[in-house]
Amino acid sequence: MSYKQLKAFILMLVCLYIVESEAQLQVGFYQSSCGLAEFIVKQEVRNGFFKDNGVAAGLVRLHFHDCFVRGCDGSVLIDSTPSNTAEKDAPPNNPSLRGFEVIDNAKSRLEAICKGVVSCADILAFAARDSIEITGGLGYDVPAGRRDGRVSLASEALSNLPPPTFNVNQLTQLFSNKGLTQEEMVTLSGAHTLGRSHCTSFTNRLYNFNSNSSQDPTLDTMYAAQLRQKCPQNSNANLVVPMDPSSPAVTDVGYYRGVLANRGLLTSDQTLLTSPRTQSQVVQNVQNPFLWKNKFAAAMVNMGKIGVLTGNAGEIRANCRVINS
């Protein structure tokens, strides 16, 4: 190889390194461009939480539902228009998603001091972390540098989000499609320790389950009786119950204790006991809550990297609900 060729080769490697570096998210991404970014998001999460502690669960779920559709690009925040039904209005998201006002408040404050700098996708990732921390989970560093997507389609939410009826193999495959392991699936399922579920997501387990049984036999009978009181057959679609009745606003292993006691609310919760490997992880999480909190923080970081837009891709939305004109 001649000197000229070697020089060109080295230059190409440097260019590749720069492109690769740009494609990586970085902890402290806004340190020089908007130093107060994470602090302001944390303040708004705290404000929202003190008005309604259920908003923490909403923000964690928003981040999850964002990342599983088109990657973590803030597309779940975009409003529908007369010509397009957006992700947030797909059946898995409407009326159950909440916490949008916290993102709006953080974004408007950030636009006032750092116009066009902080993406909605990053605000959502920070807000999910802060929600876990404020409810007793472990805080963690959020690598940032995501940019916002310009497409949001309800049909893609339907095809990418796991329904509450999925079994362990279906869940494992769906998470694998997103680059997450089965262990990360079990770990992230623990987010169901927070928040609530609409009755419509699990009444199939309470009434007319199959030709042999009106009730799902894997569901604890006392718990099923309590649920039937709160969720009468053919009742109001807006009725909700806590996912983890023992501590619905605390990030802890109560969810896994419930699953072990056959009190997993959704089919997709109770199914974790149907595989020896996932069952052993449920037991391990109950026995070592601190280990689970560490694994959960790491899994959230990994989830936050799914399909991100970086560098010059996408945009920085001025309003999280509307793509830039």
From TrEMBL:
Residues 24-324 form the Plant heme peroxidase family profile domain. The record marks R61 as: Transition state stabilizer. The active site is at H65. Its cofactor is Ca(2+); heme b. GO terms for biological process: hydrogen peroxide catabolic process; response to oxidative stress. Keywords: Calcium, Disulfide bond, Glycoprotein, Heme, Hydrogen peroxide, Iron, Metal-binding, Oxidoreductase, Peroxidase, Secreted, Signal. Residues 1-21 form the signal peptide. One of its GO terms (cellular component) is extracellular region. Heme b binds at H192. The keyword Heme applies. Removal of H(2)O(2), oxidation of toxic reductants, biosynthesis and degradation of lignin, suberization, auxin catabolism, response to environmental stresses such as wounding, pathogen attack and oxidative stress. This is Peroxidase. It comes from Sesamum alatum.
